[in-house]
């Protein structure tokens, strides 16, 4: 989820509200507050800081074929300087149709970058978060995938 080795991204006891208050860019701060409400509504989970700058909701466990295992947030975002990063840990490929209707954004392998939530369709974003969260928390096989977030089912380790 983080740009560094994900083994360093762990849940912390840092206060989410205090973190959001430190976000300098007013649009990123406003969008972060909106995303906390959206993701809480979708997941039913309380927000929690993961590392110094990721707000996460819920957890899921994954294991790679190499044997490496970890837990990460099942839904989350980070208000970065250039854009807000929304994490879709099942991979953006799984959301191609919805991404086509989202509005202005760019993507990484498991990230959607949005500069202003006012410019995108929040119902579409909410549906993407809902689908991703459901996949991660509702599918034991997904959490045991054998390669990266966009791995096909053939690449996943058996449940």
Textual characterization of the structure:
- By secondary structure, this protein is of the alpha+beta class.
- It contains four helices and six strands.
- The chain has helices at 16-21, 26-43, 96-102, 122-138; strands spanning 47-50, 54-63, 69-79, 84-87, 106-107, 111-114.
- Strands 1-2-3-4-6-5 form a six-stranded antiparallel β-sheet.
- The protein is globular, with a radius of gyration of 15 Å.
Descriptive keywords:
159 residues, alpha+beta, 6-stranded antiparallel sheet, 6 strands, 30% helix, globular, disordered N terminus
Number of strands: 6
- Main sheet attributes: strand count, strand direction, barrel closure: 6 strands, antiparallel
Helical coverage, percent range:
25-40%
Terminal CA distance: 23 Å
Order of helices and strands: HHEEEEHEEH
């Amino acid at each position: 989820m983080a740009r560094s080795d994900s083994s360093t991204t762990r849940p912390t006891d840092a206060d989410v509200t205090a973190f959001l208050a430190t976000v300098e860019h007013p649009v990123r701060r406003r969008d972060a507050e909106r995303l906390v409400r959206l993701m809480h509504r979708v997941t039913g989970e309380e927000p929690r800081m993961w590392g110094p700058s990721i707000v996460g909701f819920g957890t899921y466990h994954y294991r790679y074929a190499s044997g490496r295992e970890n837990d990460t947030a099942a839904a989350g975002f980070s208000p970065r300087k250039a854009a807000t990063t929304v994490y879709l840990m099942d991979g953006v490929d799984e959301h191609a149709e919805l991404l086509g209707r989202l509005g202005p954004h760019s993507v990484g392998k498991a990230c959607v970058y949005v500069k202003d939530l006012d410019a995108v369709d929040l119902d579409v974003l909410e549906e993407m978060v809902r689908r991703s969260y459901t996949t991660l928390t509702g599918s034991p096989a997904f959490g045991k995938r054998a390669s990266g977030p966009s791995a096909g089912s053939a690449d996943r380790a058996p449940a």
